[in-house]
What we know:
Layout: H1 20-30, E1 34-38, E2 44-49, H2 50-54, H3 80-83, E3 91-92, H4 97-106, E4 111-116, E5 119-125, H5 126-133, H6 137-150, E6 156-160, E7 163-167, H7 172-183, E8 190-193
Parallel strand pairs: 3-4, 7-8
Antiparallel strand pairs: 1-2, 4-5, 6-7
Amino acid sequence: MWVRDAMSAPAITVTEQTTVRSALKLLDENRVTSLPVVDDSGRVVGIVSEADLVREAIMRDPRRQLIPAEVKDVAPPQRVGDVMTSHPVTVSEGDDLADAVDLLTTTTVKSLPVLREGRVVGMLSRRDVVHLLARDDERIEAEICELFRADGVDWLAEVDGGVVQVSGPADDHERRLAQALAGSVAGVVAIRVD
Length: 194
């Protein structure tokens, strides 16, 4: 399965000149956790996350201190360019989804800008992967059976917990074809061919 099969598109982007306040509103309105930062030609120059935007946005409450803390006359960062991560981890839309999931689960990165020819076309987040894996077995089964019919084969597919059991392929070539077709359906976690 490819990254394009799971990503959210189109990506909601900002520039380095976008205000922190505007970026916070975009995160909130679109229920996303990060935004790719692009230049005038649409190329990724960074990424800004919730953590980047809120890190210095809340001032300490002076009522909490026994001796009130001195309120510093320092304004928090105003532009995305002041708080963004300049070297974002990215993936291409044609990358293997398993490799992208490895990045999402072995690093602190929660979402990845998805690129096509250097330009952002979507975002892949942990939430997108959860959504993909939570698909109903019946829907997965129906899509696999439709692929089998479209390819002119009379095989049976049953799905339980995202695991596909295929019956009918007669030789190694047909088994590989069944695996390729079933493996292209979102939500499939394993394939067994009789």
